[in-house]
Amino acid sequence: MTSHTERTSRVLPYVLIIIGTLLVLVASQAVISSRAQIFLSVSVLLFALFVRKKSGYLPSLLMIGLSIFISLRYIFWRLLHTLAFEGWLQSTLMLTLLFAETYSWIILFLGYMQLSWPLNRKECSLPEDQTLWPHVDVFIPTYNEDLDVVRNTVLAAMTMDWPKDKLHVYLLDDGRRPVFQAFAQDVGVNYITRPNNAHAKAGNLNHALEQTQGELVAVFDCDHIPVKSFLVRTIGWMVLNPRISLVQTPQHFYSLDPFQRNLDTYGHIPPESNLFYGLVQPGNDFWNATLFCGSGAILRRKALESIHGFAVETVTEDAHTSLKMQRKGWESAYLRETLAGGLATESLALHVGQRIRWARGMVQIFRLDNPLLGRGLSLGQRLCYLSAMLHFFFPIPRLIFLIAPLAFLCLGQNIIYATPEAVMIYAIPHLLQSLMTQSRIQGRWRYSIWNYVYETSIAIFLAPVVLVAFFAPSRGKFNVTAKGGLITRNFLDTRMVRPNVIMCCILVVAAIVGVVGMVMYRANPVLFQTYAMNLLWVLANLLIVLAAITVGYERKQNRRAPRIPAQLAVSVTDPLRQKCYAATTVDLSKGGASLRMSEPLPADLEVVNVEYSNPHDKITMNVPAQIINQQGTFVRLEWRNRTIQDETSIVEMIFGRSDAWSHWSDYSKDKPLHSLNLLGRGIINFMLIVVLRRRPIG
């Protein structure tokens, strides 16, 4: 039963939001003088700066309320005092900008609602009596991926901690490849295929549901490798509460995505996915609106059967499946523990292709199964799903904001009917307050400004997809994201950066027009300020576009097995001399390892045995390795695994440890100026490498 404290913690945010919204709506419409608006904005900003340093949820809620208040004052001012219709062109441009601003405010509000009270659910213990533990079917769907990518996931799934008679691993091969069937037979897992590829991944999973009987279903994308403790750390919630249909965990990527690699931000800037898995999903969990993300999840068979299996109506079968289950009254849970690691997209082109599918699918759900309509969802669930779907409309407003200052600079159209002074005293507080509030609540999960870079990099490619999916939701098909590829040389992907290069040239021309206008009208204060304001807008956009172009410079990545930093105590044995050396790993990969020895190895030594033991995770390894090179106490090895058992031991050592991915959120809290500095450094390095052919700065 739900305790009084738990009920209070769930009801309190609703009460605070309702009361705060009513007060803010009334206060934000008050008409005051420009001087009073400046005084109000500065006072709120100073109070927010003071509150920002306090810990706990209450300061965050106060900052959210202040940000909504200031932003509402801005949007009401825009709607009531800045609109004037002077011809079809000017009216069209004016309403287009207003649409983008209104969309941004809605997304801001929905984001605040989602993140107002993250649940941060803890693990739930299983019963000591293992006879009460359910049977689990593990589904690993694959279509056209290399076997080398799939092997790791299958071997790791086989060794998960669970009673062997209740663990059933299935390799679901939609590619109908004999080599995959032979591999499944060799390692002892079940192999399922089908005569066609109807409904892509969702159809593959549904076909497997018909062939299996387990009470629970665990789904892993074929490149997502679970830790050994995945099941025992997630299923406790399913046993405790039979109404829970889904337990989702974060999707962590141990290889670098194109933003981390091409902008050289690994370890400095959180990856784009961290915000969703670190903060948005715990926020969704509070409202009982956890989204199924297609991998790293446990689902209840009865819940799936109640909606006739995984959703097939859209190309994002995962989110749609959780929506349909929650419409049926099933509950959901999110555990913010990284219990699996996968491969990120290798290039910007592949990244864009993946996001195209996500955007198309979420817009399809918005059209075909809109969360605001129909029965079965609470208000919180409706708003969480609405936020997730509306988010993928971002390409259109992003492009509007990029070209909006050109309306005045290049076409002479005034699309905000107000003095530059009035625009600044309403817009700047709105931007600063929202920036500061988001920096506070997003903390170490996303850094300021970088979301603009990410959105700008892919907006031009997603915009037509979003429009087509909105007006023709039945069009479009599922596309598989390729993983495990190589980039053998450095190169600028001109196809991917061409739209932003064109945008950059347009913005440079607009900036020149702005400077010329300021010079020509320096004696006219209003025109001078108008040109200056639009010039600053253009320069800010130019900075973001330059960073977006930088992402398209693909850095070489010719390791098929990415090296993963890890400091593990191992023993290295010389089989000839029967001497054992202590060592610590520096990094690990499926191909080999780098070690720091306690003392140098003999110069004539070529082959050693590497031993590792982890009693906590029940991992033991003793695998031969070839010495590739040695410099003092630093040694590089290449595995010489001879058997499936050797390969399984290596997979367990690298990927199976409970703490394998515990570092995923080890980032300091956001500092907007530091974030801006890193952005500038990335652009400068790009200029030095590509344009000037010089070494980047350190």
UniProtKB/TrEMBL annotation:
**What pathway does the UniProt record associate with this protein?**
Glycan metabolism; bacterial cellulose biosynthesis
Which InterPro entries does its entry note? Cell_synth_A (IPR003919), Cellulose_synth (IPR005150), Glyco_trans_2-like (IPR001173), Glycosyltr_2/OpgH_subfam (IPR050321), Nucleotide-diphossugar_trans (IPR029044), PilZ_domain (IPR009875)
**Protein transport listed as a keyword:** no
Which species expresses this protein natively? Answer: Acetobacter syzygii
Q: Mainly resides where?
A: membrane
Which co-factors does it depend on? Mg(2+)
Residues covered by the PilZ domain: 557-656
Q: This protein is called what? A: Cellulose synthase catalytic subunit [UDP-forming]
Bilayer-crossing regions: 12-30, 36-51, 58-76, 88-112, 383-409, 452-472, 500-521, 533-553
What Enzyme Commission number(s) apply to this enzyme? 2.4.1.12
What kind of membrane protein is this, topologically? Multi-pass membrane protein
Role of this protein = Catalytic subunit of cellulose synthase. It polymerizes uridine 5'-diphosphate glucose to cellulose.
Boundaries of every Glycosyltransferase 2-like domain copy: 138-306
Quote the PANTHER family the UniProt record gives: CELLULOSE SYNTHASE CATALYTIC SUBUNIT A [UDP-FORMING]
Biological processes annotated in GO: cellulose biosynthetic process; UDP-alpha-D-glucose metabolic process
